[in-house]
Amino acid sequence: MKLHYKEMGHGQPLLILHGLFGTLDNWQTLAKRFAEHYNVFLVDLRNHGRSPHSEEHDYDAMAEDVLRLVDELQIPTPAIMGHSMGGKVAMNYALKYPTRITKLIVVDIAPKAYPPHHDEIIDALQSVDLASVTSRGEVDAQLAKQIQEEDVRLFLMKNLYRKEDNTFGWRMNLDAIERNYAMVAEAITSDVPFKKHTLFIKGGRSRYIKPEDIYDSIERLFTLVEVETIPNAGHWVHAEAPDQVYELVTTFLSADSL
Q1: How far, in Å, CA of 85 to CA of 220, rounded?
Q2: What is the reported pLDDT for 35?
Q3: Tens of pLDDT along 170-192?
Q4: CA atoms within 13 A on the CB side of 172
Q5: How far apart are CA 226 and CA 222, in angstroms?
Q6: Which of 84, 197, 213, 238 does the annotation list as catalytic?
């Protein structure tokens, strides 16, 4: 699968992977800052954004997609950063292809399995009658029946686009995501740990990474790991605390050791 990506800047290569229901645009603002020092590649993962759709949606397939992109770009050992689902893709890539990465950055996700917690969002997206709506406002109104948080609706509606016949569509492959959701929630595992430098960034108000995760799955799978918490941020750490994320990432990437 040939992933869609956007390139900017020069220097050490840095791939950035978005989360579930996201697109590469979610990281655009921070990427422009990183691009002042790094060769940044913003990536749309399969079934998201402008990348191809597939019935298959699991972490092995997504890690292989990223490897093929790395081969296509002829950057044998980039640094890779991923948020949420993209963080699990990045973890799986590092564990499967450790010689094809320099450093790993994971934003607010642990390698553990998570209980299903996106059912309401999937139901809300599926309930929108895209054939009948004529404006983004109408889509928002339909989503609001099940999703009260305006910021969540605005995030989801970044997937909305007009087709050639002027009707609306979702860029993400919602049906495939729904069918494969159990695989999105599953754990990242490996018999062999990743032995290169790794940074986990946790939102202090987020529950995605709990203290016991650090001493269990994280340190077991990533032996040279540092975990940093940004107290004032929730799960969307890069959107809520961009300056702190920028400082942590650039310091980590420029350091010879942790």
Answers
A1: 20
A2: 98
A3: 999 999 999 999 999 999 999 99
A4: 24
A5: 9
A6: 84
Neighbour tally for 71: CB within 10 Å? 11
Amino acid identity for residue 236 in this structure: W
* Beta-strand pair 12-17/79-83: parallel
Q: Please state, in angstroms and rounded to a whole number, the distance separating the CA atoms of residues 117 and 241.
A: 24
Query: How does pLDDT run across 74-88, given as a tens digit for each residue?
Result: 999 999 999 999 999
- The catalytic residue among 118, 175, 190, 216 is 175
pTM for this entry: 0.96
C-beta of residue 159 within 8 angstroms of C-beta of residue 171: yes
Dihedral pair phi/psi, residue 233, rounded to 5°: -115, 150
Name the catalytic one among 18, 48, 197, 235.
235
175 part of the active site: yes
Q: Going along the chain, which residue ranges are E strands?
A: 5-8, 12-17, 38-43, 79-83, 104-107, 160-162, 168-170, 194-203, 222-230
Is there a catalytic annotation at residue 127? no
| Mean pLDDT in residue range 236-241 | 95
197 is catalytic: no
